[in-house]
Request: fold
Amino acid sequence: MGKLVLYYATMNSGKSFDLIRTEYNYRENGFKTLVIKPSKDTKAEDFILARAGLKRKVDYLLGEEESVIEKLYGKLDGITCIFIDEAQFLNKSQVKELRLITAATDISIICYALRLNFKGELFEGSEALFTDADKLIELKTLCPLCEEERVARYVGRKVNGEFVSKGKEVVIDGSKDNVEYVPLCERHFLEEVKKEDLKLIRRRVYGR
Reply:
């Protein structure tokens, strides 16, 4: 029986870099692998591109409504592990199929995904993976707005240099010149994106 593993994090945490590095190590040690990403991620087309410069051509792009099992029918002989980048873009049915594949075979599936969107809400694929994965591993990065070392677990979307909290869930960074994403700690996400006055809330809580 295989394992369904989820590596999750915010932006700039090295998810794609870790996928490329780990998948390479599998192949170097004689294991047969497949690399997949959802076609919804149009960045780098049919490549996985890490911010550090590494890239790897995917074996299959998975359409938004495609069945994983039908897509991989007859293609899994000898496969030890399947790697999936940008797995937050999977739908619930596709994640359920991943669970069935690992339950019915000795193939393990390692997914890399954002946990939250720019509104602070779980992606559909991430929510399903948090439910079904055998193992959850957090990859960490730091909030660039903090003077001290605080882990960033949120992501903020900037449009024309300003944080926004409304808009389409998916706008791929680099697809529009005026859109960028910033990893944020909880405090800066609440202050910069949600526009919460945490000092006022503190006074309300303590009465002073």
